[in-house]
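name: query_chain
kind: protein
chains: 1
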Amino acid sequence: MARPVANGLLHLPTGDLYPCTPSYFGLTASEVVFDPAAPVPQHWLAFLSDLWKEDAEAIVTLQDWFGYTLSSDTSPPLRAARPRWSVRAAPARAR
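structure:
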């Protein structure tokens, strides 16, 4: 599954970025520039933690839902494309 972004084609399951090509046809695209070195979104993860404290499944479900809104493909394998900073990879938050 690839997602056209401003600087190429982003392969969602692996995070690999490929050059744009006219042979790829997609119904959706993003103007966002993909940056594999972008910092972990601390404010987003803190917001999720404020909403659901220790309910990791609710946080994962909301992240999945946002992922589905970005793609016209809603097949279950999209869950495998969870970002590297998902709740399961997030550092513990100080209270």
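note: Residues 38-95 form one domain.
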